[in-house]
């Protein structure tokens, strides 16, 4: 499945088991390939999105069971508005369907919902579903399920620059006080505290690009690309990606780990 890497792996590595003591704290996923999954089955693209929603449920529980601290899921980008109107409106309804059926399970698994992105631009009923889910799960202190909805990494950075410029202009801070931690603090991931930067970024469906996702935060993340389309992703493929992560040597610019 992880074809390129697999070639370099020995049989013993392929059968490696997951190390439960080295689970990436923050996993970010670009959930891609819903449309192609549907087209392969001669179904409309939205059938892929519907199935993809089921995958979100399964993968959320799987990640929570593995002890992941934050699962960030890219659900709708600032560029996805370019899609046909029908598809966009279906995608806007999905969070409503998702939270209506899944909040009790999230609470049962102690999962807290957070959202990053420009929520104010979403339809009113979608905004309400999102805010309700955030409120209903606010007491949960297990995994954080962080949805990127109408999210763009560049948009996020532009917002941060505006905020910082405003603080400088008002005299609240000086230019000299602008540093990496101040920039981070002005990004939408600020609420994730020490987990704001993903350890592992997974993209499904074979595309190998980040499509405006978490540009700042992915600076030192490990990337895993899989050919599996999002509706076919599951607990097993998640574990495979984590096993691949566990075989990497993160150096953060230094020489040894
Ligand atoms: C991912 O699947 C879901 C969203 C981007 C909203 P796509 O809809 O991008 O599926 P493909 O890439 O066209 O197959
Ligand atoms: C990225 O997928 C956005 C989401 C998964 C929400 P796209 O399908 O929109 O990305 P591109 O257009 O292939 O780069
Ligand atoms: Mg796509």
From TrEMBL:
Its EC number is 2.5.1.-. Gene3D superfamilies: Decaprenyl diphosphate synthase-like. It is an enzyme of class 2 (transferase). It comes from the Bacteria. Mg(2+) binds at residues 32, 222. GO terms for molecular function: ditrans,polycis-undecaprenyl-diphosphate synthase [(2E,6E)-farnesyl-diphosphate specific] activity; magnesium ion binding; manganese ion binding. Substrate binds at residues 33-37, 45, 49, 77-79, 81, 83, 203, 209-211. GO terms for biological process: polyprenol biosynthetic process. Its cofactor is Mg(2+). Binds 2 magnesium ions per subunit. InterPro entries: UPP_synth-like, UPP_synth-like_CS, UPP_synth-like_sf. Pfam families: Prenyltransf. The active site is at residues 32, 80. CDD domains: Cis_IPPS. Keywords: Magnesium, Metal-binding, Transferase. GO terms for cellular component: cytosol. NCBIfam families: PRK14830.1 (NF011405), uppS (TIGR00055). Homodimer. Belongs to the UPP synthase family. Catalyzes the condensation of isopentenyl diphosphate (IPP) with allylic pyrophosphates generating different type of terpenoids. This is Isoprenyl transferase. It comes from Paucilactobacillus suebicus DSM 5007 = KCTC 3549.
């Amino acid at each position: 499945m992880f074809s390129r890497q697999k070639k370099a792996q020995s049989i013993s590595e392929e059968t490696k088991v997951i190390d439960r003591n080295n689970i990436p704290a923050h996993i970010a996923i670009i959930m891609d390939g819903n449309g192609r999954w549907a087209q392969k089955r001669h179904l409309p693209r939205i059938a892929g999105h519907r199935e993809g929603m089921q995958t979100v449920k399964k993968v959320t529980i799987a990640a929570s069971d593995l002890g992941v601290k934050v699962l960030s899921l890219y659900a709708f980008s600032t560029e996805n508005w370019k899609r046909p109107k029908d598809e966009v409106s279906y995608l806007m309804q999905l969070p409503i369907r998702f939270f209506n059926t899944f909040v009790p399970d999230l609470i049962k698994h102690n999962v807290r919902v957070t959202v990053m992105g420009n929520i104010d631009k979403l339809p009113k009923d979608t905004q309400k579903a999102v805010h309700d889910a955030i409120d209903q799960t606010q007491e949960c202190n297990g995994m954080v399920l962080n949805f990127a909805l109408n999210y763009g990494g560049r948009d996020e950075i532009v917002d941060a620059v505006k905020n910082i410029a405003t603080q400088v202009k008002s005299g609240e801070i000086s230019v000299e006080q602008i540093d990496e931690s101040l920039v981070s603090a002005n990004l939408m991931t600020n609420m994730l505290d020490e987990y704001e930067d993903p350890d592992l970024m997974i993209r499904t469906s074979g595309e190998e690009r980040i499509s405006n996702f978490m540009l700042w935060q992915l600076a030192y993340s490990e990337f895993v690309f899989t050919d599996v389309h999002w509706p076919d992703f599951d607990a097993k493929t998640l574990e495979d990606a984590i096993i691949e992560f566990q075989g990497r040597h993160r150096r953060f610019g230094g020489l040894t780990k």
